[in-house]
Design brief:
The structure holds 2 protein chains of 2 kinds. By secondary structure, chain A is an alpha+beta fold. Chain A has 2 domains: 1-99, no CATH class; 105-159, no CATH class. Chain A has 6 helices and 5 strands. Chain A has a 3-stranded antiparallel β-sheet, covered by helices on one side. A two-stranded antiparallel ribbon of chain A has the order 1-2. In chain A, a hairpin with a 5-residue loop joins strand 4 and strand 5 (152-155). In chain A, helix 2 (30-51) crosses helix 4 (62-73) and helix 2 packs across helix 5. The longest helix of chain A is centred in the first third of the chain and has 22 residues, at 30-51. The radius of gyration of chain A is 21 Å and the shape is elongated. In chain A, 21% of the residues are buried. Chain B is an alpha/beta fold. Chain B has one domain (9-280): Alpha-Beta Barrel (TIM Barrel), CATH 3.20.20. Chain B has 9 helices and 12 strands. An 8-stranded parallel beta barrel of chain B has the order 1-2-3-4-7-8-9-12, surrounded by 5 helices. Chain B has a two-stranded antiparallel ribbon with strand order 5-6. In chain B, helix 6 packs across helix 8 and helix 8 (225-238) runs parallel beside helix 9 (254-280). The longest helix of chain B has 27 residues, at 254-280. The chains are: A alpha+beta, B alpha/beta. Chains A and B meet through helix 1 and helix 2 of A and strand 5, strand 6 and helix 4 of B.
């Protein structure tokens, strides 16, 4: 084996141990490698926390636990990118039905601006791009339109509070739909 | 003099610090993160203003992985060269580290094994990088929580080996050195002694935190006395060296940041004044 081949094997074993919890290669101090693995996950979480403040605040105390759990089984295969990482994490929450409902507008906006390639890289959308989807919770249609030049026009009707004896104070809905009904 | 026209106390340019840096009367130089620059479009306005003021710009990258078993990706080199030209960088710095292997990105700068194999591969990778980059390349010692087993030589010998086998300059991070002193018992004096003045590009200083008996180089906590003491010893040996503060997260109040910059300047001056006294003898 050449120096490159020997090095490639040794480096791959170490990165597997750090990234996806593969066995710590022989000779390393396992406690130290685990401490480094934890620190890498922490750094990755902090990146997503900074890139996606609404997601971190919507999940509150759950954010750290959920993100780290997800990150351990979803290593990064492309250049680290906290925006893309956060979007993939949000998608996994959505699949589990755990995505906080206040995130739908933010994700809609993101998806009108960016797409994730099959490799997982974040690429900007160009020209006109329309995103239409139905919100998981409210079942209402949401629309985002990317205009040439990059501005995004968004229409996300919020659910109005049901009429109760003591209705909570609500801010004006972003979108208005006179035929609204509440689930 | 070093191989570069850098001097004084600089700071890592970050968007969150743009206003603070803009107001600094005379920053020695700024270091810009290549991965944080927009891929296309305009260079951030505050950076252009700094250049107009004549503040030298250094480009710092974390994604080449020059210590990787694989040669540096020509597309990455190309991108880095373009970024250097866009910001008018006088130097590009990277790390004595690898960041990916076996199809996985670690998201971090991982230490190299201190082996003949690693040095051989590094030297080849550095040659390829230098051929593609428009300005001098400097390599930085990294901090780590663990070490590779069966090291064939010391940290000082790794740096000396890099300097003797490549034409690259050294970016000495005294906070990373401090981390290695605490985490691995590295001989700091041996490392400081192997740094030739003419090959030293500049010096990094940053804050960190001690957690569970390990020092973490976070760039998100206050500056410790340890790295400052190492800077002082370096300046005592080499005279005034260009040095800069790195802060990447949990940005403190301006007064705190200013006092950290002042502490860096003081440590540098204390060491340099002893160097001057020694030189007069």
């Amino acid at each position: 084996m050449s120096a490159r081949e020997r090095l490639a094997q040794a480096q791959a074993e170490l990165v597997q141990a750090l990234g996806v919890g593969a066995p710590v290669p022989v000779g390393f101090d396992p406690a130290r490698v685990l401490a480094a693995a934890q620190s890498l996950i922490h750094k990755r979480r902090r990146g997503v926390e900074r890139a996606w403040p609404p997601l971190a605040s919507a999940l509150g105390a759950d954010f750290a636990v959920r993100f780290e759990h997800w990150a351990r089984t979803h290593p990064m295969a492309v250049e680290p990118d906290a925006l893309a990482d956060g979007r993939r994490f949000a998608a996994s929450l959505q699949e589990e039905g755990r995505l906080p409902s206040e995130m739908s507008g933010v994700l809609l906006d993101f998806d009108a601006r960016w797409r994730l390639t099959s490799e997982g890289e974040r690429a900007p959308r160009r020209g006109v791009w329309l995103v239409v989807r139905r919100d998981d919770t409210t079942r209402r249609l949401q629309v985002a339109l990317r205009l040439p030049g990059g501005r995004v026009w968004r229409w996300v009707p919020e659910v109005r509070a049901p009429v109760t004896p003591d209705p909570p104070v609500r801010t004006t809905p972003r979108g208005h739909d006179s035929g609204a009904h509440l689930d | 003099m070093t191989g570069l026209a850098l001097q004084g106390v600089g700071i890592g340019w970050r968007r969150e610090l743009a206003l603070f840096i803009d107001r600094l009367p005379s920053p020695g130089f700024v270091e810009v993160l290549a991965e944080h620059l927009p891929v296309s479009g305009d260079v951030p306005e505050p950076l252009l203003r700094l250049r107009e003021r004549g503040v030298p710009v250094v480009l710092h990258a974390v994604s080449l992985g020059l210590g990787s078993a694989e040669p540096p990706d020509p597309r990455r080199l190309d991108w880095l060269a373009r970024q250097a030209e866009r910001v008018g960088a006088i130097c590009i710095s990277e790390h004595l580290a690898f960041v990916r292997a076996g199809g996985l990105e670690s998201g971090h700068l991982l230490p190299l094994p201190r082996s003949e194999d690693a040095l051989e591969v590094l030297a080849e990778n550095v040659l390829r990088a230098q051929a593609a980059l428009p300005v001098p390349l400097a390599l930085e010692n990294v901090a780590s929580l663990f070490e590779w087993p069966d090291a064939a030589f010391s940290e000082a010998e790794l740096l000396a080996g890099m300097l003797s086998r490549t034409q690259a300059l050294l970016l000495l991070d005294v906070a990373n050195l401090h981390a290695h002193v605490l985490n691995h018992g590295t001989d700091a004096d041996a490392v400081l002694a192997c740094v030739p003045r003419e090959r030293l590009a500049y010096v990094h200083v940053a804050g960190g935190v001690q957690r569970d008996g390990l020092y973490h180089d976070t760039h998100a906590h206050p500056l410790h006395a340890g790295p400052l003491a190492l800077l002082e010893r370096l300046a005592e040996r080499l005279g005034p060296v260009p040095v800069m503060l790195e802060r990447d997260d949990r940005f403190p109040a301006e007064a705190e940041l200013a006092s950290e910059l002042a502490a860096v300047a003081t440590a540098l001056e204390r060491g340099a004044s002893r160097w001057r006294t020694e030189a007069r003898r």
